[in-house]
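A further point concerns the way the authors explain their paired sequence and structure data. For illustration, here is how one protein appears when written out as sequence plus structure tokens:
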Amino acid sequence: MRELVDFFVRSRNFILFLLLEVICFYFIINTSNYWSATYFNTANRYTARMLTWSNAVNDFARLRQVNAELAKENQQLHARVTSLQQGHPPAPAAYRADSVFANRFKYTVAKVIDNTTQLANNYITIDKGTDDGIQPGMAVISPTGVVGKVRTCNQHFSVITSILHTDFFVSSQLVKANDIGPARWDGNDPHSIKLTDISRYKPVSVGDSVVTSEHNSTFPPGILIGRVSKVGVQPDQTFHDITINLSTNFTTLAFVYVIQNQLRDEQTQLEKQNETDK
């Protein structure tokens, strides 16, 4: 307390000067319309600028929360769209899908915490594991397209085999040509993969969409993989040489959706039994 009093005593002249300056400033503003208007215009301008900066900082600080909320909303929308697609498939009018089939896909949102794109075989780590219902073999997509498939899990984390893996392929369908073939990465450009086994006599054009086909038990049908960027024919081959630009940008991947096919085990068991019977 004594030090505070000593400080005021030592600085009394300076404090008196500041006090007189404030009083003079107050009288100038209140006795002159010109200086009053100038003060308020200047004050308002700088106040507005400070509020803009403050809001920008607050918005930036909330980006993580906003992204998480958007990912959660997209999860619900994906589930809804898939349910509608499965409930009204492109089939004869006499066909009616039951509610179990229509709701067979369950979505779980997860955050990417590690991701490689420069290797021949790339993997992605997410912050969800078995405690969240994640199991090996589940499909993984992003808001823009296919990502890969769950490889291993523990309680709180999972490792995904990325589509940028030379041993990973997904059954794909050309939307316009209505033809199906496997899509696989060749280990080169992390923005594109190859689509094979498409007959050279099928009409394929640059820009055609490629989606997941009905012929797999992992991915829901109709999930975008990418668009055709190059079409050619290799010598002495009966198939197109097709390059696809991936719809998912793996270098900026932040959130993904893990998809559980709740009828997968039932389907796989029946298919294995059929192979055994043969």
Summary: The CA atoms of residues 78 and 117 lie 26 Å apart. The chain has a mean pLDDT of 78.
